[in-house]
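F.,

This is the one I mentioned.
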């Protein structure tokens, strides 16, 4: 049986892998074993759903999907339509759903998200920010798995 510390490290790694996959434009032809099977991740896309012509949101969606294919987590997608209030609301919903990890675009900033990020970590949910960091939350929770991922 995995220890809680080891499981958190795996979940943090899974969240980072989901975020990193944003920068991966191609599909893997021979994916590695599904080492994240059974992990539930809430993937918040800052923009519009696929097919809307939102190229940036498509990068997020495609990256999340590729991580799902390659690593095996269950990913629940939500789309914020470039509204920071929606991102914050979706973060709250993901926390209430008690997922294992949340991939969060940091656009709302620390002031809007830090209390929610605190709540997520308090219940054992790993949060990773993408494309824009939440530096104050990172100072608090980096040892628990909060990181920042962006393609530059």
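My design for it:
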């Amino acid at each position: 049986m995995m220890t809680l510390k080891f499981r958190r490290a795996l979940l943090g790694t899974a969240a980072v892998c989901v975020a990193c996959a944003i920068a991966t434009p191609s599909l893997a032809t021979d994916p590695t074993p599904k080492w994240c099977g059974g992990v539930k991740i809430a993937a918040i896309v800052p923009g519009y759903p696929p097919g809307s012509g939102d190229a940036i949101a498509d990068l997020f969606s495609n990256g999340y999907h590729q991580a799902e294919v390659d690593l095996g987590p269950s990913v629940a997608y939500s789309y914020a339509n470039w509204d920071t209030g929606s991102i914050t609301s979706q973060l709250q919903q993901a926390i209430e759903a008690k997922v294992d990890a949340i991939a969060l675009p940091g656009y709302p900033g620390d002031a809007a998200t830090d209390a929610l990020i605190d709540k997520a970590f308090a219940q054992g949910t790993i949060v990773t920010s993408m494309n824009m960091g939440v530096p104050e939350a990172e100072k608090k929770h980096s040892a628990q798995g909060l990181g920042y991922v962006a393609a530059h």
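The longest helix spans residues 4-20.

Talk soon.
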